[in-house]
Specification:
Structural class: alpha+beta
Strand order of the largest sheet: 13-26-30-28-27-31
Strand content: 25-35%
Length: 741
């Protein structure tokens, strides 16, 4: 019955099919691109299953360390791990099998004498040994534990099968070595390209961009950033894949803090989710950055430059001198938190080469006057043989031009804007608060000023000068009313209304009338001598005196309010023409305050002047020119292009050339009449000094009040360079030199 089952054709065919299937799987494994550890494990499982063995081992061989266990099946069941002598005997057998390329069949409990001891099979299994040998080297050994009760032919068949399978394993090893060599060649090519590229430029920022972009390709990570140390802080200057980035963004700001913290520690930081081993400042910085960037793995490598050869030889210098980090290399994995050995090795290589390149770039960039040396290097072709004569000629011309800027004289004029106005003009002010109820003049109307009594003159404050009166001067000043000395008032201009003034006048009029009535009653009582006692008479007399004083006070107060009432009618203070445009539209039905300018009156029939608004920074040149001219011509000097009459009238005034905006083609001439002693602040022009310029009487121009003028004041001669760059020199004096004191 058992004999029939043993030779059952179906069972035999099924077994052959399983073996063929396992062989095909081993063949596919040999052609696949899987890790060697996984291949060896699956290869051994299929070989053991194909020959129905009890177990097996794959040993790998290297020249330095000899045989090492790669993978095993049921090794413990053989009993090799329990006895040290058996293990040594078995080990000698393995090394002997490495020398037999055709493989070995070792019966159980068999041994032979070798030079270094006994080599044999101490187990109760049949050992089938086949080496893994490529064309150039011995890779390892496959050991199969098989049952010993099989026929000899069958055992030889096991050995032939194992040798064939080892050929498939060797094929996988060859393919792996080829892929390894190819990857290694590609890695070296990439590293060579990376090294060459990062050393191409000596500009720190360009080098940082190259490190970030080329380093990302070499490391095969998601993002690489480069930070450069400035003082005690690091600043990110390059991010892979980004030509420009927002340096004020939260991500870059937090990355700056992280790199600063790691560089201060001077130890590499590898973050894969756990921060328990980090320094407190590093832990805080990395947590904040990871929360913002959502990176799974972050590595920050400080770029510490190595010591130079001369520093390495000096032991004392090597101990005392500690080179500060140049910056940091930041490597990030956004999706994968696993950091493999391959990635760490590549990061270390990139960091090492990047440190050298960045050190060279920073050292070169920090050389004294490096921008100048670069410029000289770029323009070195100017001093070559063919271009040297031209360079010398042009240099001589440039030098001559430069010297001429300091020695060649040229007329120096300072320009300023201004207006054409009559010299006799006066602004009309409101003498009291009120509401404008009527404007009696228009733009261009001719008005007349007041006519005073004979021998009455008013000083600048409006008080009479030379007035003869029985009252004291104090009383004159207290009770003075200009209207009482005016024979005829000026032309009425504006009428105002003030309800407070009217109310006070009505109130004082009532107080005066009631006081007069009471006084008459008291006088009547005093006239009745019989009806009053002596004490009543005295009391009534005192009351009469009190009423007289009250009446006098009421009249004085009423007089003052009458003066205010008269001030509600604003009259022209001088002869002239109303020059304020749209005066009625600007004032009608508007409240005004005391001292507010209502309009301006000018006399166009009198003398005209140009009022220049000279900037304060230029007035010094004008005063210096005046002093120089007075030293040369203490009695005055004549100015060309002006009349003899003007030269006699203003013998010490500087010459002025001006043009009107309405007639820029006509150049006019005048002389300075007066320079203000104080500077004023004008809203549009800043600090200015006003200059009055006298004009020719017969210049045949249309004189419009307020016409814009552009004038130039002649200040003698100065070097042509000073004339051309006077504004720049004035700016330096005012904004730089002036602020030092």
């Amino acid at each position: 019955m058992s004999s029939e089952q043993q030779f059952d054709p179906n069972l035999i065919e099924q077994t052959k099919h399983q073996i063929r299937t396992l062989v095909n799987e081993i063949t596919q494994l040999a052609k696949s691109d899987i890790p060697a550890e996984e291949f060896y494990s699956q290869f051994l499982e299929r070989v053991v299953a194909a020959i129905a063995a009890t177990g097996g081992v794959i040993w790998t061989f290297s020249e330095g360390s000899g045989l090492s266990l790669q993978t095993q099946i049921n090794l413990r069941e053989t009993g090799l791990g329990n006895d040290k002598e058996k293990m040594q005997e078995h080990s000698r057998l393995l090394y002997r099998a490495l020398k037999h390329t055709e493989g070995l069949l070792v019966p159980p409990h068999s041994s032979t004498q070798e030079e270094d001891g006994v080599a044999g099979n101490p187990t109760g299994n049949l050992l089938i040994l086949a080496p893994l040998l490529t064309d150039i080297e011995l890779v390892g050994l496959v050991e199969i534990f098989q049952r010993p009760d099989t026929p000899v032919n069958t055992q030889r068949g096991y050995l032939r099968f194992l040798l064939q399978m080892c050929e498939q394993a060797v094929e996988f090893i060859k393919n792996s070595q080829l892929r390894h060599f190819s990857d290694r060649q590609m890695l070296w090519s990439q590293l060579e390209e990376f090294t060459r590229t990062i050393h191409e430029s000596l500009d720190p920022k360009a080098t940082a961009y190259t490190i970030a972009n080329e380093g990302r390709r070499l490391i095969e990570c998601d993002r690489v950033s480069v930070a450069i140390r400035y003082g005690s802080r690091c600043r990110v200057v390059a991010v892979s894949g980004q030509d420009l980035f927002d340096k004020r963004s939260n991500t870059i700001r937090l990355l700056n803090k992280l790199s600063t913290a790691v560089v201060a520690v001077e130890e590499p930081m590898w973050y894969t989710g756990d921060t328990s081993n980090f320094a407190p400042q590093v832990e805080k910085a990395v947590d904040a950055y990871v929360d913002e960037s959502h990176s799974k793995a972050v590595a920050v490598i400080p770029l510490i430059p190595p010591l130079r050869e001369e520093d390495r030889e000096d032991i004392k210098k090597r101990q005392d001198m500690k080179r500060a980090p140049l910056g940091a290399l930041i490597v990030e994995q956004i999706e994968n938190s696993a950091v493999q050995t391959k990635l760490r090795q590549r990061v270390d290589v990139v960091a090492k080469h990047s440190c050298a390149a960045m050190a060279n770039a920073l050292e070169h960039n920090n050389l004294f006057l490096m921008p100048l040396w670069r410029a000289i290097g770029r323009w070195s072709w100017l001093v070559k043989a063919r271009t040297l004569p031209k360079t010398i000629t042009i240099s001589i011309l440039v030098l001559a031009l430069f010297i001429s800027l300091f020695i060649v004289p040229y007329k120096y004029e300072v320009n300023s804007d201004g207006h054409l106005i009559p010299e006799e003009r006066q602004e009309v002010y409101a003498n009291i608060d009120g509401d404008v109820i009527d404007v009696l003049v228009h733009h261009g109307d001719v008005v007349k000023g007041p006519i005073y009594k004979e021998n009455i003159k008013l000083d600048e404050k409006g008080n009479p000068v030379g007035l003869i009166s029985q009252q004291s001067h104090a009383a004159q000043r207290r009770l003075f009313d200009p209207d009482q000395y005016i024979l005829k008032k000026g032309t009425p201009l504006v009428r105002l209304r003030n309800l407070d003034v009217s109310t006070q006048i009505v109130k004082l009029t009532g107080d005066i009338n009631s006081t007069l009535t009471e006084r008459k009653a008291v006088e009547g009582l005093l006239l009745m001598e019989r009806g009053l006692s002596r004490q009543d008479a005295i009391r009534q007399a005192g009351r009469l005196n009190e009423l007289d004083r009250m009446l006098e006070a009421y009249k004085k107060e009423a007089y003052l309010w009458r003066v205010k009432e008269r001030n509600l009618n604003v009259c022209s203070p001088c002869d002239g023409v109303v020059v304020t445009f749209d005066v009625r539209e600007n004032l009608i039905n508007r409240p005004v305050q005391r001292g507010q300018v209502l309009m301006e009156i000018a006399n166009p029939e009198g003398e005209w002047i140009v009022e220049l608004y000279m900037p304060e920074r230029r007035i010094g040149a004008i005063r210096l020119a005046q002093m120089e001219m007075e030293k040369k011509h203490p009695d005055g000097w004549d100015v060309p292009n002006v009349s003899e009459q003007m030269n006699k009238k203003y013998p010490k005034g500087l010459a002025v050339t001006y043009v009107l905006a309405s007639a820029p083609e006509t150049k006019l001439y005048g002389r300075i009449k007066e320079i203000s002693k104080t500077a004023e602040v004008m809203e549009e022009r800043g600090n200015v000094v006003k200059i009055k310029v006298a004009l020719e009487e017969n210049d045949n121009i249309q004189r419009n009040i307020g016409a814009s003028v552009s004038g130039k004041v002649y200040c003698g001669t100065r070097p042509i360079g000073y004339v051309w760059f006077s504004d720049v020199i004035a700016f330096i004096r005012q904004k730089i030199i002036f602020r030092w004191f």
